[in-house]
Amino acid sequence: MGRSRVRQHVNPLTDKYQQVFQMPDWSDLFADLTAPLHLDIGCARGRFILEMAQRFPERNFVGVEIREPLVDDANEIRDQLGLNNLHYVFANINTSLQVLLDSLPTETLTWITIQFPDPWFKKKHHKRRVVQPDLVDILAKHTPQKLVLFCQSDVEEVALEMREKFLEHEKFILTHDSFWLKENIFPVPTEREVATANKGEPVYRFLLHKK
Ligand SMILES: C[S@@+](CC[C@H](N)C(=O)[O-])C[C@H]1O[C@@H](n2cnc3c(N)ncnc32)[C@H](O)[C@@H]1O
Questions:
Q1: Cβ neighbour number for residue 177 with a 10 Å cutoff
Q2: Which of 101, 105, 145, 167 is most deeply buried (CB count within 10 A of its CB)?
Q3: Which residues are near ligand 1 (CB < 6 Å)?
Q4: Three-state DSSP state, 173
Q5: What predicted TM-score, i.e. pTM, was given to this entire model?
Q6: By C-alpha distance, which of 42, 191, 181 is closest to 112?
Q7: What is the mean pLDDT of the chain?
Q8: Taking residues 29-37, what's their average pLDDT?
Q9: Long-range contacts: 194-202, Cβ < 8 Å, 24+?
C-alpha cells in the first residue's frame, strides 16, 4: 500500500475543501445498517478502525479524512479484507458533518472518536482545527442520547481547547471526575497514539456523554 504521495497537512479552509462532500449509499456498504455505529473523525490511514472493525464485526465503522489518497488506500485495504462493516469517506468534516449525519442511520450512532487532531500551533491557524463551535453544535443536536464521545491528543493545549469547546455546550458532560481520563476506553491505539507512547510522552484524554 501507500502508492500515493500524501501531503502531511492540508488546510481545510482553502477553497478546494469548502464544498459539501458527497456521501455514499450506506446500504451498499454495510451488511447490517442497524448495527451500532462508530464514527472516527480525522482517521488518517484508518488503521484504528481497520483493527476495530475486525475485532467487533457486530459494529459498523465510518472514518472521515480530508486527505483523499489516504481514504482511497484505506478503502482498498478494506476491500481486500472483505469487510462489510467499515467505510472511509473523503470529506472536510467541518463542511460536511451535517450531510454525513443526514445520510447515516444516526439512531445507531454510539461512539465518536476525535484522536490526535492536527494541532495547528500558530494562533492565526487555530481556526483550521477540527473542533469548532459549529461541529460541537451539530453533534449536540443531531446525535442520539446514548452517544459516547472520546477525544485524545498529545498536545495539552489542543486537548484543553477541545475539552473546553465541548463542555461550553449545555448538552455535553464529562463521564469522569478527574480532569483527564486515565486510560483509553478502546482496546486499539491509533497510529499517533503508538508513536506518542514510543516517545514516552503523555496523552490527554477525555470522555463525554450527553445530558
Ligand atoms: C494527526 S492526524 C491523526 C490521525 C489518527 N486519528 C491518529 O490518531 O493516528 C489528524 C488527521 O485529521 C485529518 N483532518 C484534519 N482536518 C480535517 C477535517 N477538517 N476533516 C477531516 N479530516 C481532517 C488530517 O488530514 C489527519 O489525517
A1: 5
A2: 101
A3: 10, 12, 42-44, 64-67, 92-94, 115-118, 130, 190-193
A4: strand
A5: 0.97
A6: 42
A7: 96
A8: 98
A9: 196/116, 196/154, 201/154, 202/154, 202/156
